[in-house]
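Lecture notes, unit on protein representations.

Consider one protein chain, 72 amino acids long.
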Amino acid sequence: MAVRDHFRLDVLQRQAAQVQELDAELAQLERLRMLEEEGAAGTCPNCSTPYGRGAGFCSKCGTQLVETVLSP
């Protein structure tokens, strides 16, 4: 990658892209582990805070978690 103060940017960019992919996979696994440990029903689509079954709104950001359906 580095030879006499010369960096191969193409190699660095490829490696950085691989690190980003692995980091995203790790974050997803951490979210799944947290859900299992806390017994949560899911995570908020806005801030990724876990919420329990029956929650209508996120406790952290207030995002609506369940769509309301109006009967005709």
